[in-house]
Design a protein that fits this description.
seven-stranded mixed β-sheet; 11 strands; mainly beta; single chain
Length: 123
Amino acid sequence: QVQLMESGGGLVQPGGSLRLSCAVSGGTFSSYTMGWFRQPPGKEREFVAGVGWGGFTNYGAPVKGRFIIWRDNSKNTVYLQMDRLKPEDTAVYYCAATRSGLVRETEGAYDYWGQGTQVTLPS
């Protein structure tokens, strides 16, 4: 059974930084494409960033240039460094894994999901 556990969320001021982590257990982490999604209050879940098993990355337009995703296969963990945060980055952030070799931006492409971690910025 594959399990994903996010951590690192919290309250941060605009312009600040946070680093999210997602630890994966119960599967072959190195073979998964990993993604981060987020769901702002009252809105649908959206793609944030993804990293393939080979290290290829892709980012959603709202975060490009501010967020960085990377993976550490030795720790079965994927990270999301979030810099220059804005109030509109407030959301529940979810980690997801897919056995697909492609970094996809759609929720349905992902097989496993974490419970989410809250990131809040005062407006």
